[in-house]
Design brief:
Length: 124
């Protein structure tokens, strides 16, 4: 199983090309991709989202957060800050759930490298 970030799902729905999109497509065909809950919120926040895209988004498996998730995310952001990194709440929420499930993240956002450096998040 691998988690997909918002930017990859948007690129996939837009029909973009790229090795990450091909990889995502293969994962989807195998049922080996899920999305963090915050990604669903980010995707559905687009007022121009076509109705058929919402059906695709709703079909993604979403795993529940585990007890203490919010506290771990807050402490994680503090750890990042102590290492000189800023991290937005959305990205921190995504990174924390990946860490909780020990699952890699498929993303186009190079900023997730800071989560790898500080906590060992696996990023594809």
């Amino acid at each position: 199983m691998i988690w997909a970030d918002t930017n990859c799902i948007i690129a996939y729905l837009a029909g973009d090309d790229g090795s990450d999109i091909e990889f995502l497509d293969k994962l989807l065909r195998r049922g080996a991709v899920a999305v963090p809950p915050v990604v669903i919120s980010e995707l559905l926040s687009d007022p121009a989202l076509p109705p058929d895209a919402e059906l695709v988004i709703s079909a993604f498996p979403v795993l529940a957060t585990r007890e203490g998730y919010w506290q771990r995310t807050g402490r994680f952001r503090a750890r990042l800050a102590a290492h000189g990194y800023k991290a937005g709440l959305g990205d921190s929420l995504v990174a924390q759930i990946c860490l909780d499930y020990k699952t890699p993240l498929l993303t186009r956002d190079k900023g997730f490298g800071r989560f790898s450096k500080v906590a060992g998040l696996k990023v594809s």
